[in-house]
Amino acid sequence: MAIRLSLGHIDEFDDTVAQFAVQLGLPSVQFHTPSNLAGDTPYWGVPELRALRERCDRAGLAIEGLENVPAEQFWKIQRGVDGRDEQIENYHRTIRNMAATGYSLLGFNFLPTYVWRTDMNAVGRGGAGVTSFDAADAHRGNALAGYKLSSAPPIEEVIDADRMWENYQYFLDAVLPVAEEVGMRLALHPDDPPVRDALGGAERIFITPAAIAEAARRAGGSPSWGLNFCLGTVSEMGGEPAINEVIDLLGPKGQIFYVHFRDVSGTVPRFSECFLGEGNFDPARVIRRLASVGFDGFMIDDHVPAMVGDIATWGDTSPEAYCSRGRAYAIGYLQGVLNAISGD
What we know:
With 344 residues, the protein is of the alpha/beta class. Helices cover 37% and strands 18% of the residues. α4 (84-100) runs parallel beside α5.
């Protein structure tokens, strides 16, 4: 199967979002902690999973996968504190329920304080709204605080990198056998921003291509482990050379499960999100390199600039904000690149 494009990072699915996908000519969707799955259990249950699939089926849209269970179902696992075994048992239930209702892919992150930005209202090309990060301003707090996946209790004692690696290994050892049993694929998102600093009280570990390779090694060759290849995050590490390194390390092994297609201008300790084509990497070169190592999965749009008339950048999860000019621009750009490359 050739590389394909899906409407992704959907937080709330309704008729407007479905129509947006169809108007853009996209055959599938991918979800990010969707509000549609807000059931009354501490895991994703069969009824709501089935209802979401059936709603997408009626709209003529396939579901590529889901990403990130709610923070209240996962934060103890990330931090390695009392109660994580119960959360792992519930994660097992989510995995089994997803498999039972026809899902095969679940993305996850290992960021106890989630994505960190120092400015949610930075100014991009032509006055577009973008987000940015500057390590010198990180002490002021996370400008993304209040987002649905940054809602866990404050960390009282710093969680260092060694402990984060231990927590990650504990999680893999517990969940990969279940994922393998039911045919579920689990995809790790690298740390955004990729700095070791204890932002909010937890040091970050998936911050270099070498660390991503170590994350893969610790999975022991499990067919259920792969990478949610966030190009923007890896671009933050070192631009296109860092992206190429990850592609060459994991691509030939089939360990890149899907791609978040976005970019930034600059690298850590300071960067800003931007339009595709004006950042650190050349989109066409990256797609060609992915194809050359055998990647044949799906790509999604990710964070996008807010253009004239758009409500906000990606901190707003409403369908009205989601169906934006900035997102339509990103999808159209990628469709054009994919069409041009397929004709080479």
